[in-house]
Amino acid sequence: MSSLFDLTGKVAIVTGSSKGIGRAIAERLAEHGARVAISSRKLEPCQEVANALNERYGAGRATAFAANISSKEALQALVDETNKVFGRIDIVVCNAAANPYYGPLGGISDDQFRKTLDNNIISNHWLINMCAPQMIARKDGSIIIVSSIGGLRGSPIIGAYNISKAADFQLARNYAVEYGPHNVRVNCIAPGLIRTDFARALWENPETLERATRMSPLRRIGEPDEIAGAAVYLASKASSFTTGHTIICDGGVLA
């Protein structure tokens, strides 16, 4: 009897997977049997992750591609190369994101706002559309967007980022409705504050860290690997009746 979480034979693309949450997700998908395309802006860090996974789980388990999510051409090349190397794409994890500005919305420049929206919403839309047709043809696939609990509340510091992450919830809902009849599922994961380089400006600030942990029932921030299990669930048969929803992994903050 195969495990509900068995991903043997599946192929996943994980953006922003050279470190942090993306890397943790890629590692756990590979652990459960998937072949994984590791991707971020720079090739060398991606290759280091791919090499580590191939050493741990066997040659051919992972491959590395450089792709800047702000470039539609780069994302298409990522999809094309993944298909060329692995022959298919079954799982897409839209994890890479941008947050070029910290502060109130009144101070954000138009370019910073556009970059946030383009990288955190439009790029996900691009990648999903590039991968979905083959999933629809096979009537099987899982698309996962890594959003944030910031999309469920306001902030005087990361308001633009939160707006983009709120839009990701609706992006998943809408694609879930469109692709559901083809057995292609689309869901979000909404992490709270996680100890990553991306969120360093938040957790390295003693006041912000104290406020975040004080409001958390677990009284701590999360680690990247604590998000990966939700991705394995959403990628696998275990979640075959789950689509259009968001798994919140925040240590209980929103409770």
Question: How are the SSEs ordered, and which strands pair?
Answer:
Layout: E1 11-15, H1 20-31, E2 35-40, H2 43-57, E3 62-66, H3 72-86, E4 91-94, H4 110-138, E5 141-146, H5 159-179, E6 184-191, H6 200-203, H7 206-214, H8 225-235, E7 246-249
Parallel strand pairs: 1-2, 1-4, 2-3, 4-5, 5-6, 6-7
Key words describing this protein structure:
255 residues; alpha/beta; Rossmann fold; 7-stranded parallel β-sheet; 45% helix
Characterise this structure.
This protein is α/β, with parallel strands linked by helices and 255 residues long. It has one domain: NAD(P)-binding Rossmann-like Domain (Rossmann fold), CATH 3.40.50. It contains eight helices and seven strands; from the N terminus they run βαβαβαβαβαβαααβ. β1, α1 and β2 form a beta-alpha-beta unit. α1 crosses α8. The relative contact order is 0.15. The mean pLDDT is 95.
**What class, by secondary structure content?**
alpha/beta
Number of contiguous helices: 8
User: What is the distance, rounded to the nearest whole angstrom, between the alpha carbons of the first and last residues?
Assistant: 37 Å
* pLDDT < 50 runs, ≥5 residues: none
Q: How many independent structural domains?
A: 1
